[in-house]
Amino acid sequence: MAFISLKNLELTFRVRQERRVALKEYILRGLFLKGNNIITEIKALRGVTLDVQEGDRLGIVGHNGSGKSTLLKVIAGIYPPTGGECSVEGKISSLFDFTLGFEPLASGRDNIYYRGYLQGETPESIREKEEEIAEFSELKELLESPVRCYSSGMIVRLGFAIATAIEPDILIVDECLSAGDIAFQEKARKRMESMIQKANLIVMVSHDLVALSEFCNRIVWMEKGTVRMDGSPDIVLEAYRKAMLGEPESTPPVVESETLRIAS
């Protein structure tokens, strides 16, 4: 059983801004006056309510800064919410930054284990997948060399091979459908399709509207940390495309139904 339930989810970042001052003022403030540090609150998510059930393939769209990736990181447990509720049932695998956790001075083969441990693998389970990862990455003969000697494309290929050598209940994907060169991208796409078919629940962020319409059965449109629209891919993606291109909307501004929900 896999599900995600978000109720009035809030996430606020508190950022300390420090104003540069002259040495004399700095000393006076330190001795007699209050500090000059200013705390700024950034509301990244505002009252997000979503229920994602087993079998859902949920795509999330929105312009940069709309809260898409932040929402994924709350679901993955990277950011704790500052308000509301976030309930997740099922084993989560998150595909974010493929190069996260690499040790440059260690060999590629050692890094298969390091990254595998970060994904929740055991020494036994990652050992069983080691050769398949090596073959898929097309780096078998180079895996004994330090990762610092790899090109950026080689690191991405190895990271993608490790990250996708899993069978999760919940798969969370953030803009990772383009890995490596053109030939490897085709392999990566087929691997992603296989993972999507096997996972019980998918949440995917992407600017590739074609891929979202192909893989997803539901789309959420995020705007300024809130859910602007939630419904079927053909309706939501068309509305989003028109908004991004500045075209007039062909649907009413507020609609409530089982297939389309637009936040007022």
Describe the protein.
The protein has 264 residues and is α/β, with parallel strands linked by helices. Helix content is 35%, strand content 28%. The protein has 8 helices and 10 strands. The longest helix has 17 residues. It is globular.
What does this entry show, briefly?
The chain is an alpha/beta fold and 264 residues long. It has eight helices and ten strands. Strands 5-6-7-3-8-9-10 form a seven-stranded mixed beta sheet, with helices on both faces. Strands 2-1-4 form a three-stranded antiparallel beta sheet.
List keywords for this structure.
264 residues; alpha/beta; 10 strands
Q: Secondary-structure element sequence?
A: EHEEHEEHHHEHEHEEHE
Helix content: 25-40%
Number of strands: 10
Contiguous helical run count? 8
Unreliable sequence segments: 252-259
Structural class: alpha/beta
Distance between the termini: 32 Å
Share of β-strand residues = 25-35%
Spatial arrangement of strands, main beta sheet: 5-6-7-3-8-9-10
Instruction: Provide mean pLDDT, rounded.
Output: 84
Largest sheet: 7 strands, mixed
Label the overall shape: globular
How many whole angstroms does the radius of gyration measure?
A: 22 Å
Secondary structure layout:
Layout lengths: L2 E16 L4 H9 L5 E17 L3 E5 L6 H8 L7 E7 L2 E4 L12 H11 L4 H15 L14 H12 L6 E5 L7 H17 L2 E5 L3 H7 L2 E6 L2 E6 L1 H13 L14 E3 L2
Parallel strand pairs: 3-7, 3-8, 5-6, 6-7
Antiparallel strand pairs: 1-2, 1-4, 8-9, 9-10
